[in-house]
Write a structure and sequence with these properties.
Oligomer: single chain
Largest sheet: 5 strands, parallel
Number of strands: 10
Radius of gyration: 20 Å
Length: about 400
């Protein structure tokens, strides 16, 4: 499989929210096309924002100043964009630490991810001269925009990372960093990768270390190599016949695990839950059986050996129960997990030494988790693009929920 190189369409002008993607009765789906587009897309975003875009420069300078002054930095989002916000917070935290700003637990000025709805309930979000960054692919998410309005009213600097500067969210923000290319599926993949790459571009300006577009393309492309696709299809063939999936992770892998659980529910219509790795051993083994798949993500190099050792413990318990273990592992960690513990398979994430650790960790898992979802959808005969809104029952449910 080779990823196409051409740009994706931008947001409508004038701005309107996206419509349900046109149905494709069989693969390749729109989601398939979006995953294939991501290596080239990431390179384009990195090249465009890397030191040339004044809005990216302004956001980097504002984040560095606010952090040095010890004022709050919050990153907010909903759904896939919430996981993008969690990833962005990790990337900015690493960059600020590299720039010499103390980033220990409990310190002021540490970037923190917040769920946008909850953030919007705060009457004084951030406070004067703080920084609140919204992550919203289309820029029309009500909860995210409400949080940005609360931050604006509180005197915060308000930024957004989004596709277009014409969206409702962009109209609220002081700083608008645009990714320009629109996800063509409602099971967002480009909508996840794009803001993470944009955050990496901001981080590169903070550290004054250029972001390598070629390294991004290579890392994202690794998940589309023939061998990786074959391993993903084999895993999907096993997991696709199960009733539910549990996704486990720790450290910087948490946002990836949350995104995988959400993607599986949206795109493949399998009940899925994310748990912290250690939490799984404190009561939750009781909730799994032979109808359950357990996927462990362990890529973050910080604490990797300890987490992989603990993951092996979890997988031994999973095997005794008869559930189906699988992993998404860093290349150097793979030998530490015996093959018999992963009967549902394993996906390997290569090292990316030319990228910052947080960027390599989070983007290294992006294509594997997305392609696994897409192949799970195929195995179950599901079109992932409409996230079940093509079914009248689920469409009515969405309308009832507002």
């Amino acid at each position: 499989m080779k990823s196409p190189g051409g740009p994706l369409p931008g947001a409508p002008d004038p701005w309107v929210g996206s419509k349900m993607p046109a149905r494709r009765r069989q693969a390749p789906y729109h989601m398939t096309d979006m995953i294939l587009a991501e290596p080239a897309l990431a390179g384009r975003i990195a090249e465009r924002l890397g030191g040339k875009d004044p809005h990216t420069v302004r956001l980097a300078a504002t984040a560095l100043r606010v952090a040095r002054e010890g004022r709050p930095i919050f990153v907010v989002g909903c759904g896939t964009s919430e996981h993008g916000a969690q990833a962005a917070a990790e990337i900015l935290r690493e960059a600020l630490a590299t720039a010499g700003v103390p980033m220990g637990l409990g310190r002021a000025g540490v970037p923190t991810a917040l769920q946008a709805f909850e953030a919007g309930l705060e009457s004084d979000l951030g406070g004067p001269d703080s920084l609140v960054i919204g992550i919203s692919h289309e820029g029309g998410t009500r909860a995210t925009n409400r949080a940005l309005e609360r931050a604006q009213a509180a005197g915060a600097h308000v930024a957004i990372i989004t596709v277009s500067d014409r969206s409702p969210g962009a109209a609220i923000a002081d700083i608008v960093v645009t990714t320009e290319e629109m996800d063509q599926s409602w099971c967002h993949t480009v909508g996840y990768v794009s803001p993470i790459v944009a955050a990496a571009a901001v981080a590169a300006l903070i550290t004054e270390e250029p972001l390598s577009a070629s390294a991004l393309r290579e890392l994202l492309g690794a998940g589309l190599a023939q061998a990786a696709v074959g391993q993903t299809e084999a895993m999907a063939a096993i997991l696709g016949g199960l009733e539910r999936l549990i996704v486990l992770a720790g450290g910087r892998d948490r946002s990836s695990a949350r995104e995988l659980a959400l993607k599986v529910e949206e795109g493949a219509h399998i009940a899925a839950t994310m748990r912290d790795l250690e939490t799984m051993l404190h009561g939750h083994l009781a909730g799994i059986d032979a109808r359950t798949g357990v996927i462990v993500i362990a890529v973050d190099p910080a604490g990797l050996d300890e987490r992989v050792s603990r993951a092996a413990d979890v997988l031994r318990g999973v095997r005794e129960i008869g559930a189906h273990g699988a992993t998404i592992l860093a290349e150097r960690a793979a030998p530490q997990v015996e093959l018999g513990l992963t009967p549902a398979g394993r996906l390997i994430v290569p090292e990316a030494p030319l990228l910052p650790l947080a960027v390599a960790t989070i983007l290294g898992t992006a294509v594997p988790l997305q392609l696994l979802t897409e192949r799970l959808a195929r195995s179950r005969g599901v079109d992932p693009d409409p996230i079940r809104r093509d079914d009248p029952i689920y469409r009515k449910a969405a309308q009832a929920a507002g």
